[in-house]
Amino acid sequence: MGNPYNKLPEYCFWKNLTNKSLEDLSNIKLKKNFKIKKNYKVSSAGSCFAKNISKFLTNNTNNYYITEKKHDLISENISQKFNYEVYSARYGNIYTTKQLYQLLLMSQKKFSPTEKYWIINNRYIDPIRPIIQPNGFSSKQELLLDRAQHLKYVYEMFKYSDVFIFTLGLSELWSNINDDTVYPVCPLVINPKLKEKNYKFENQNFYQIYEHMKKFFLSLKKINKNIKIILTVSPVPLVATAEKRNVLISNVYSKSVLRAAAEQLQNDFKDIYYFPSFEIITSITSKSLFYENNFRNITNLGVDLAMNCFQKNFLSDTDKCFTNTVDIKFNKTSNSLMEKICEEKLLDIKI
Amino acid sequence: MILDFFSKENYEVLLIGHSHLVAYERINSEKKKKIIKKNFCEINLLDTKYKNSYLRVNNKINDIKFDNKVKTKIKQCSIILCFFGGNSFLSLGAIKYKKKPFDFVSSQFPNFPVNKKYHLLTEDLVEELLTNDYGMPETLACLKAISKFRNKKIFQFESPPTIYSNKYMLKYGRNFKDFFLKNGVNDPFIRCKLWILQSKIIKNFCEKNSINYIKIPDILFKKKYFLQKKYFSEDFAHANSLMAETILTKFFKF
After folding, report:
1. Is A71's CB within 8 Å of B100's CB?
2. Using beta carbons and an 8 Å cutoff, which residues of A are at the interface with B?
């Protein structure tokens, strides 16, 4: 049989990685991939990093599928302020697989949180998407009607998408002790006047993350049998951990367990794929070049490389291509879109 | 009632504004008896003689200044009654936006009907739309400019509410008529909610700029929310001189 490593291609060896330029990271070939056809509807959701994917698809393909569009009368400025078209629907960031599964159930009217709203300064906050509406909603009626309309668009997105891209962001989550509603951020960060006893913290393990994603996938297949899912793991580190330990340890746990679950899901299901944005951006060979000075925000260079890799693996050559050349110079310009809506960042503000 | 425009050199009250001022102008031609014993001067900024009477500062619509002709008239009076703008809500909401009609929940009247077949926008978003487009920037800029005359008593009058009847809207649609026929007239409660919102925006702006805001008296309303038929003029967007007389009489407490 001989040495099995002798027969392996160059990319299987670490030295190959160190010998190549950083741009070469975008040439990673995935064992499991497919080509997004021109007529495919591609929707997405996920944690902060997911915005880069929606932005890329919007700017560089005709595939990005937005069901909850801004109204024609609304200008770009107003639309951005009210978080339209950041994702396929106006759900804000979805950090966990449990939250994603909950969204699907809500869109199918199979789940409805018992806690419908929070009141802060006479404004009504949607607990499920607390920063989607600047300053909250003006009345309870408005909030409930807006949510109902939103969920219709979410259902439409799930039903008619050909591809759904999900960025796994966190293993840590906060939920309601009574009905298990998952929130994108700790409720007490949004409203410190809430009763602490009504909410619980949970740091999910591999099995929980896997199971929620599996349930999501199987339920989704029931309403859209041909849909394919591309998973990726956000390279953006945790803002804070609710575990009483160093955030570095929590961050490594969280990313590891998410990455492992994504791998397992890809192996177990034909229509689940994985895209290595996490690996590209956190690559040790980049010497943190893909992070801004706070070691959290991703530089445009990092995003460009990751999205180049996505393009090469998932977009067909005939598609409108990502023509921007990657600027290898360290680009300090922060991505304002990234900062635009990030519930998790609220942790930093409140601390 | 007769508003005795330009009867004396030293008038006390200046009426200034846009199209809603016409109802006040008409008091003169339609009534014979003078009951307000004050001298009035009137500046209709839409009148050709006042064309270009305010200038944009740095070419910005939200920053204007009045020309010397207007300034001179302002300086002579002691009371300024403003009728700036007032039809922004109709610019946005008179014609149904057929492609994707919208509705919203009024925070002041959350139980007003909401058409569930229409696309729901939030009130804050509609407020942004009104404030940034549909003529409102010009209204607010005029108010801002007039508020700089700090030694005057300044009042901005709420514009008349919308009428309920879509039939009447269509009949007296004037330059909107073809659009009404093509796209349809918007639901009366949507117009009403837009009017309420517009009033809120202008009232808040007035309060921030030390301008007294005068609300439409209840007597003008039909079922609290719409203009009574007797105050209709022969166009869908403005009220008649009877409304103007009612408001001024109440204002000067005759």
Report:
1. yes
2. 71-75, 77-78, 81-82, 133-135, 137-142, 145-146, 149
* pLDDT tier, A182 (very low <50, low <70, confident <90, very high otherwise): very high
Return d(Cα A168, Cα A165) in angstroms, integer.
10
Predicted TM-score of the model (pTM): 0.89
Residues 6+ apart with CB under 8 A from B251: B81, B155, B214
- Give the one of B105, B107, B119 whose C-beta lies nearest to A71's C-beta: B119
Is B111's CB within 8 Å of A140's CB?
A: no
Q: Determine which of A73, A81, A145 to mutate to test the interface with B (most B C-beta atoms within 10 Å).
A: A73
| CA of B114 vs chain A CAs: smallest distance (Å) | 9
- Residue among A313, A317, A316, A295 at smallest CA distance from A305: A313
pLDDT tens digit at each of 254 positions of chain B: 445 554 445 568 889 999 898 888 887 666 555 555 567 777 888 888 777 777 766 666 677 888 888 888 888 888 999 999 999 999 898 999 989 999 999 999 998 999 999 999 999 999 999 998 787 888 999 999 999 998 899 999 999 999 999 999 999 988 888 999 999 999 999 999 999 999 999 999 999 999 999 999 998 988 778 999 999 998 899 999 899 989 988 888 75
For an interface test with B, which of A139, A146, A150 has the most B Cβ atoms less than 10 Å from its Cβ?
A139
Inform me whether the pLDDT recorded for A320 exceeds 70: no
Q: How far is the CA of A127 from the CAs of A150, A173, A298, in angstroms?
A: 14, 14, 28
Contact A212, A97 (CB under 8 A): yes
CA B113/CA B128 separation, integer angstroms: 22
Which chain B positions have a beta carbon within 8 Å of A133's beta carbon? 122, 124
Residue whose entry in the numeric block shows the structure tokens 């906060």: A174
User: Within 13 A of A46's CA, how many CA atoms are on the CB side?
Assistant: 27
Interface of B with A (CB under 8 A): 92, 97, 99-100, 102, 104-105, 107, 110-111, 114, 116, 119-125, 128-129, 132-133
Q: State the first-to-last Cα distance of chain A, in angstroms, to the nearest integer.
A: 59
